[in-house]
Amino acid sequence: MSIYNDYLKEIEGRKVQGLHPKPIDGAELLSEIITQIKDVNNVHREDSLNFFIYNVVPGTTPAAAVKAVFLKEIITAASDVKEISNAFAFELLSHMKGGPSIEVLLDLALGNDIAVAKEAAAVLKTQVFLYDADTDRLKEAFKDGNVIVKEILESYAKAEFFTKLPEVVEEIKVVTYIAGEGDISTDLLSPGNQAHSRSDRELHGKCLISPEAQNEIQALQIQHPDKSVMLIAEKGTMGVGSSRMSGVNNVALWTGKKASPYVPFINIAPIVAGTNGISPIFLTTVDVTGGIGLDLQNWVKTLDQNGDPLRNESGDPILEEVYSVATGTVLTINTKTKKLYNGEQELIDISKSFTPQKMEFIKAGGSYAIVFGKKLQTFACSTLGIEAVPVYAPSKEVSIEGQGLTAVEKIFNRNAVGITAGKVLHAGSDVRVEVNIVGSQDTTGLMTSQELESMAATVISPIVDGAYQSGCHTASVWDSKSKANIPRLMKFMNDFGLITARDPKGVYHAMTDVIHKVLNDITIDEWAIIIGGDSHTRMSKGVAFGADSGTVALALATGEASMPIPESVKVTFKGDMKTYMDFRDVVHATQSQMLQQFGGENVFQGRIIEVHIGTLTADQAFTFTDWTAEMKAKASICISEDDTLIESLEIAKGRIQIMIHKGMDNHKQVLQGLINKADKRIAEIKSCEKPALTPDANAKYYAEVVIDLDIIAEPMIADPDVNNADVSKRYTHDTIRPLSFYGGVKKVDLGFVGSCMVHKGDLKILSQMLKNIDEQYGKVEFKAPLVVAPPTYNIVDELKAEGDWEVLQKYSGFEFDDNAPKGVARTGYENILYLERPGCNLCMGNQEKAAKGDTVMATSTRLFQGRVVEDAEGKKGESLLSSTPVVVLSTILGRTPTMDEYKAAVTGINLTQFAPSHKLLVNK
Known about the structure:
A hairpin with a 2-residue loop joins strand 12 (339-342) and strand 13 (345-349). Helix 7 (114-124) packs parallel to helix 9. The chain is built from 31 helices and 33 strands. The strands form 9 sheets. It has a 7-stranded mixed β-sheet, with helices on one face. The relative contact order is 0.08. By secondary structure, the protein is of the alpha/beta class. It has 5 domains: 3-127, Alpha Horseshoe (Serine Threonine Protein Phosphatase 5, Tetratricopeptide repeat); 171-354, Aconitase, domain 4, CATH 3.20.19.10; 401-565, Aconitase, domain 3; 568-708, Aconitase, Domain 2 (3-Layer(aba) Sandwich), CATH 3.40.1060.10; 744-897, Aconitase, domain 3 (2-Layer Sandwich).
């Protein structure tokens, strides 16, 4: 009983934290529990029964397999448990969501006991998570004339697993809870520093917003037991940033409803809202759980008599409250009229939240059931040789005669499945698409593996060209949490068919490369669709969508994703870059100039940014596409010239080859397959058979933005503006300021050069600056710590070969050692240069952090409150984002530099320069 006793000790430990017993996913523990159930005199029998019935993780977990087999024993009378009747055993199987439970149900349905077979068939008719092995059994039994199987297939053909579900209720009563003013980052809902606990849903739920907020939500639930609590981002957008699935899981845990009475801590159907709606990826994740996301528009711009926005002293539009959603307000969502009401008063049209597709997600309890249901219906109809009965809402197909295609529309048209033959689709269409490349990262990967288990998937879809499991978010510190979680994750994903950063067999050195950098290398076709478990899945080739862990799981399992074709915004450039400016300044200026051109309206939000940047190779162009996540864009398309694209593909081939040399390819030779595809694509471009992707000349855009390089005269800094009197203006990425704003006097406590935003050129800039400063002053002295984390090992190797790493070593006070990685997160910093392990480091904020209250100057992407730096007593932490030279110089000086100091420091240094293409980037 050692395993069970250990479990009891763990339960006692969790009680101290206010937690229930951890859900069981291991076969050995559940087997011991079953032994105790069979022993009617066992002192632990009652508890064991409860654990077996209510506390086992479903799907394909080892425990689920043991549970399914024991339920089969009960149904076939091989075991007798008086508390579990045959009917109850079947009910428990119906809640196990596939995998072993489907195998058992098929065994029973195909067995000789007709009564049992009919009961099993009745349950099977409600199930949708069937895979090839399951459908193959049904197909064979149907060919053999099995009558019961014919009934099952006929039910599937009618999609009765969906049609017999209860309809969505007409009126949903909600009570509001203001989670915060301004944009609400998912860091508020699922903090990065608690990433280690995301797979333990109850434990992770403890970090939602704050204990005070949790108490307030519970108080509202007690006061309004018949209503759902709706979390709101007042004067902002809900769910910006990363970690969407864990954020939605936490919201659902506190405000949603149980998915099953027999599955602990998995809740669905949360309701969230924002004045400016919901971040696109977060909204997709809400759909995964069958939830609702509302665009409230309860604050609007105040207009003058000419219809122009009135502005305050800061130049920001003055907002006027149209209606109140203050905490405790009772509202009614009407899913029939698709309106939001306060009593009898109609407040706003919310029809975008209740499209036919979204209504199906709500009815089915999530989008997965719809995806699998459609596939199951298609299979059944094909097997029976009949036409499918229209059950689901047809895909929305928008086709405009005489209108050309944007780049993203072309990609969607090439990859779309199940659309009307010969039909050309434009933005607004809602389609299924095949996915070419998939990425899973390590802090959400554990949830992705859980999602794969819950949907009973065991192997990657054969139509996926390549998939990668990273180790970058836990690269900084190899602590007890990492040791417990990461090897388990890597083994699962390696077995599933992904290329993994860490080899479970120990054949190759553990890689901790930043996930989107690797995905940028292994994407070898600009016509590809990429899905990645990180908001910065924005490639310089193809169109890439950051996604929640569940959508990643779905893409891995099926090779498909469902989404609308977004509108695009075209970005072009004119003028010339100043020689002392870095391309990062162009990236920030793009956001700033766009907001100026459109009166403060972010035309990028929720749309595709089609950036005509043609002459920058993949590494440099990625700096722009990467940042588009902070522009709140849904994705980004990079338009490259033929020669530039070929150069980028050659670079990608070289890096994939390095991965092969390290031993990272699998038995299916996925990496070699990518090189072969890259060779084919290069040949197509060179022969003019299929030139680089470009939009049509008559494509239609939501907006067109022209960035004037001539007016970018100073380094640009994204400032969290932590002391803005308007709380809603803090911690957004929209406050972009020139260097001179700080007057050369703002104290900088720590600098960070790293994250996905930097490439090899940035590390070479650092190397050159250190040499210059040494020559100018006779020594290099840091007045603030400088933390440097290269994005990939390839960059380190290339810097070593080119002599730059030796320079960095010369001036560093710490250098990472993979043979003895840090076991404890750094809590304090000296004024030295730290050469940290490749990976996310400070940008992630889950392991390493700056000291509380620090002002950090960083090349990273995150300036959210508490992400890189937390507040101290009496002093707010700040994460200012800028170019590599600004960060380096700020640590040398201990403050922001003046323009004269900056220009002197970068003289003669080869910064990342950009010259706009003069070729006509239209369809060739």
